[in-house]
Amino acid sequence: MRYFFILFTFFFFQKNIAQYITVDETYTAEELIRDVLINSTCASISNVSVIGGNFASGEKSYGYFNGTGTTFPFQDGIILSTGKVSEAPGPTTPRADSNLSGWTGDADLDQTLNVASNNATILEFDFVPLGNKISFDYIFSSEEYEANTNFPCVYSDAFAFLLKEANQPYQNLALIPGTSIPVKVTTVHPAINASGGCPAQNEQYFDAFNGVEHPTVYNGQTIILTAQADVIPGTTYHIKLVIADEDDGRFDSAIFLKGGSFNLGVNLGDDRSIATGNPVCPDEILTLDATTANVQSYQWYFAGNPIPNETNPTLTLNPPYNDTQIGEYSVDLVYNATCTNTSKINLEFAPELVIGEDEFTECDYEGEQDGIRTFDLNAIIPELFPSLPTNYQVAFYESTTSTTPLPLNYRNTTPFQQTIYARTSNINCYGNIPVVLNINTFNEVITDETFYLCEGTTMTLDAGSGFSSYSWDTTPNQTSQTITITESGTYKVILENATGCFKTKTFTIISSGIATIQSINIEDISDNNIATIIAPGSGEYVFSLNGINYQASNVFENLIANEYTVFVKDIRGCGIATQIFYIIDFPKFFTPNGDGYNDTWKIKNLEKRGLENSKIYIFDRYGKLLKEISPEGNGWDGTFNEKPLPSGDYWFVLKLTNGKIVKSHFSLKR
């Protein structure tokens, strides 16, 4: 046939490093359908016709293309365009923009897509399917896929694959998979960030914006898509493959139909793969059914090789499966000596998921011990499925019927224990695997404590009995209930209870110690004799002059001349420091009447303070020196020249050896 001759000639002369596709406009409509698109001895084809642009140069808007040796996904096939197909080969510049005045659109396309078309190219034919499904592969390319503009948000040429039985309405096969949305520039593109941009639309079906060196001239294209429909074997169908400019005639687009992809045979089902979420499950028994009327014999193949003894209409695959079974399964349906039709399906098998840990226990550390806490479900996944393939996605649900995934930071709703369910959200083989969440509590009341450690002593800290384990933050770490310490500081112990939950108890140890009485500052021989006790130390101290009654102040006032013992006590029990001190003062009066009480006037305790060499002079009211007495003597007896002096006020001058001079007066009473 002509197709094989031209193809052979092309392959012979084509360079192995060809960069751009080539096109051939010499094919008739019959050759394009029968020899290129279908390429089967079983095809029952009729009423083939084509309509396209009538360019003055004789160039066409349809033809055969060859992509062998390029990066274009199809080796060859049919191209239908809104402009000259001669402009379809790369590079991407200059733009394919071959507008033609008077080139009309297509009414069926306009009605199907609700557009106003022009520059339509239409390839249509009748056919009779042998099996119950037809399908073919295609790519939609367009100059309106222009990067860094908002064109994909606004502009698109229109195309449709219109199928019908006689006297029935058309159905469009050029749809986004699983939807009723037509494939267009505006319905398949990534997010557009240019001025007037728009969010992504079915981005998974967009291939790329093209650089200058691309096999075709077009700025962008979809991935390989498959048009398919269920049909009735032996029934005549009509199909119209049409593409046109929408509204204006600018910026050409093209449909590339893969050569030999139009399958008229039996439907073995959709390909099964992990990527599409429908692999063959580990426990699934899969039966491929090619049963078709008028078939004389069957032969099943795997990876292009006949499967021994598999010549029945069905092929049954039984678990367990392994990676060597992944690949293409096909069946040859022999209708007669000149007609053999092949149907194919690609199968991928999901591996067995090994379930590791399916019960998880956490402690309630979030405030009130109510058995409610937040779980990191994302951290659970690798423990639940220790050998989870990298492209598997796992979600959790509160019930076996719930369709709303739980947040990965999940706060349980049933206290203390709750069962949730894990499913692979992108693979339909694994579902409702119970996962038990246990929430334990630490109900024992733990109180931090503060103690005081006397300098030079030891102390035993007791964390309390009844716990499973103890871990002190000492160096080295100690694991007993009690520890002995010799220094102040903060000591922490982690307590584990019987449910495996932990709390930390803190001991604050404050150093304390007996005071050192450094000095006693005395202000005496005055109207208010004061002693101030200077006693530094690491403790907190109280003060007393009798060892019974203590005060917080270190100052004692209104002291009379006497010997005193000051007691400085550490309130933490680290001891009492003592010291004797003396208050010096003079009598305010004396009564020299011979009764043995207060018979002489004397300043006491000077010798106790080291002032025994001080000088004491006594004067009468007129300043007459009456007597000089010694601090160590018996004092003045109230006489002058051995004669008693009368009652009255007398004065004295005390010259202390420390340089201080005290002047005051006292009374003599008879």
UniProtKB/TrEMBL annotation:
Pfam families: CHU_C (PF13585). InterPro entries: Choice_anch_L, Ig-like_fold, T9SS_type_B. It comes from the Bacteria. Gene3D superfamilies: Immunoglobulins. NCBIfam families: Bac_Flav_CTERM, choice_anch_L. This is T9SS type B sorting domain-containing protein. It comes from Flavobacterium sediminilitoris.
